[in-house]
Specification:
The protein has 154 residues and is α+β, with helices and mostly antiparallel strands. It has one domain: Nuclear Transport Factor 2, Chain: A. It has a 6-stranded mixed sheet with strand order 2-1-6-5-4-3.
Length: 154
């Protein structure tokens, strides 16, 4: 009987450990997917313009936090982006870190952005954070985006 109880305890511990490893493997995969989504988002901004990239990557209920504005939410955020004239600059960024929730449906990235102003051939740098939500199709879209200047000019 003692051996049976010990074996049962060992099986329970092994099962929990296996489940924990699967959970951390999934979180690691989600973290990598978040970083890749953020990189692809930046590449699209460089290739097709900030407006196109943001419209493609914003969740339908996404929120933009911008200087001198109340939070811009959902359809209003998309309207705000549509009205942007991004022909005078190129916005790119590089994620420095990402984290995914154990549930696998939310995460965040943060990093450094570069706003290159074409007419002045100069750049402004700042930091950003994006909160992401996994869509039903498995694609990550941001639900909150914010950034701030302050890292200097080129």
């Amino acid at each position: 009987m003692k051996n049976s109880a010990g074996l049962l305890l060992l099986l329970i511990i092994a099962s929990c450990s296996t489940q924990e490893n699967k959970k951390s493997d999934t979180q690691l995969a989600d973290k990598k997917a978040l970083i890749q989504a953020d990189i692809n988002f930046s590449k699209m901004s460089a290739e097709k313009g900030m407006k196109s990239a943001f419209i493609d990557y914003i969740d339908s209920n996404g929120v933009l936090l911008r200087p001198n504005h109340l939070p811009i939410i959902g359809a209003n955020a998309i309207d705000y982006l549509i009205q942007e004239n991004d022909s005078g600059y190129v916005l790119t960024w590089e994620p420095q870190y990402a984290e995914a929730a154990s549930s696998g449906d939310l995460g965040y990235t943060y990093g450094i952005y570069q706003l290159h102003i074409k007419s002045k051939d100069s750049s402004i740098y700042g930091s950003y954070i994006s909160v992401w939500k996994k869509q039903k199709d498995g694609k990550w879209k941001f639900v909150l985006d914010s950034g701030n200047e302050g890292l200097g000019e080129e």
